[in-house]
Amino acid sequence: MAEIINLNKARKAKARVTAEKQAAENRVRFGRSKAQKQQDAAEAEAMRRKLDSLRLDPSEPDA
User: Fold this and answer.
1) Any idea what the Cα angle at residue 60 is, between residues 54 and 62, rounded to 5°?
2) DSSP structure class, residue 56
3) Measured between alpha carbons, how far is 38 from 24 in angstroms, rounded to an integer?
4) DSSP codes, 24-46
5) CB 37 within 8 A of CB 45
């Protein structure tokens, strides 16, 4: 005799597995610590200041 399954529970379990897989992919792709974000922001700010100091006409902002 075949095993009886609740299709609603099976559907929800499959959705849970899919959502967890997507969450794991997102953590790898977008997950960065606060320190890493601050470090990147500091590096970008330092680069912006360096470029501004090398500007030929400092009175003219970005075009």
Assistant:
1) 80
2) S
3) 23
4) HHHHHHH---HHHHHHHHHHHHH
5) no
**What is the distance between the terminal CA atoms of the chain, rounded to a whole angstrom?**
76
- Measured CA to CA in angstroms, residue 18 lies from 22, 23, 28, 61 at distances of 6, 9, 16, 48
Closest among 35, 19, 38 to 27, alpha carbons compared: 19
The pLDDT, as a whole number, for residue 29 is 87
The residue among 35 and 56 whose pLDDT is bigger is 35
The more confident residue out of 15 and 59 is 15
